[in-house]
Amino acid sequence: MTARPLWWDASTPTDRPSLTDDATVDVCIVGAGFTGLWSAYYLLRSDPSLSVLVVEAEHAGYGASGRNGGWVSALYPTPPEVLAKAHGDAAARAQYAALRDSVAEVGRVVDAEAINCGFRHGGTVVVARSRAQLTRAKEEVAHSEHWSLGTSLLKQDAAVERLCATGTLGATYNPHCARVQPRRLVDGVADAVERLGGRIVEHTRVTSIEPGMAHTTGGPIIRAGSIIRATEAWSSHLPGSTRAVAPVYSLIVATEPLAADWWKRIGLARAETFSEHRHVIVYGQRTSDDRLVFGGRGAPYHFRSGIRPEFDEDPRVFETLKSSLRQMFPVLDDVRFTHSWGGALGIPRDWQPSVGYDTATGLGWSGGYVGDGVALSNLGGRTVAELVTGQRTELSKLPWVQHNSRRWEPEPLRWLGINAGLQVASWADREERVTRRPATLGRVLSFLTGH
Q1: What's the Cα-to-Cα distance from 363 to each of 170, 366, 380, 388, rounded to whole Å?
Q2: I need a labelling partner for 391 at 20 to 30 A (CA). Which of 32, 322, 357, 450 fits?
Q3: Would you give the DSSP letter of residue 82?
Q4: Rounded percentage of the chain residues whose pLDDT exceeds 90
Q5: What is the spatial distance between Cα 57 and Cα 73, in angstroms, rounded to a whole number?
Q6: Residues 6+ apart with CB under 8 A from 72
Q7: pLDDT value at position 15?
């Protein structure tokens, strides 16, 4: 089994040079993942006269943007009632509506720029395989109806028709999600940025950012009127933002391509993404070449926000993912798994993503997506473009704009708290398997995550 993202196999990235000399530009964007590339794309679409430089430590799409599960979803980690408490009901609804629009906007750009990334707007189905999960599913639907989020309840037969997982009692369905091959989307947006006149340099690590200036390991200095931090989990390694987000790992496995007869017994005929109403987050999709990709949380948070290549692999978690998938779909018992990989995502202390810009210093950012960043980064990129150029629309008034999360606790409290939350989620699922009732540990989990 290959310890490398499946998505990278089908990618033909451009080998871009590093920065060798000092540079002066209008806008410097640190990070060539979705956030940085979408920001550059919309900045150049808004004002083609801008000089925009995107600086990447590795290669475009190296981080979460090229490793994720390929959900372009309207999921948002902050519940609408939390937003409403601080900003009012209308603002909370606007935030979620903007994210739903972002799913369609990604599809529009894919078509406009002829990006071959397997984009398919099939929605997402989340199965309930126990009475406790079904209770949560019904609660989610009631919550969705109140906030007009679009989630509906599927009864058992309809749920099994969508996704034939063992023990399915029902499911929720939300149409606001698309499947995508994320690395190809990264490459396509990067190419579009360059066609619009933007410059992308790779293998150039930014070590610090200050108003008007970004420093790199190789020595070159970048001077810019605006500097945008688009580093997500790696923000924790930049001076001044080391406790802004906590990098938490999510791991994924992928099967060999499956024959049509197998898919008849699994479902996902409309290329829906899928999950389960458990406490430990899992996610999956049917790829454009008919593989089953399945990922989830469960890998530990590493002390002092560690991010290292060796953390991309955790044999214990990989085996758990494969076992869980085979429990859901016994037809996979003899199927070969060809790829396994992982990567870090960024979690703010209050689980609230944010985008912002300080006109006085020219410093801006977007991030803290808690794993829901494929569509949210598009919204972030469009908002960054508005904030930098001053061409404001309703996007600039959304609740997440200029939001400042409080910093994470210092170590070892951060390590203890985050790993305790991951363990409680696992215990809560075990409790429900035994009691067949909603877990009392769920309240502990809500407290630890701030919800």
Answers
A1: 47, 11, 15, 9
A2: 32
A3: H
A4: 89
A5: 27
A6: 103, 106, 107, 119, 177, 178, 179, 180, 374, 375
A7: 85
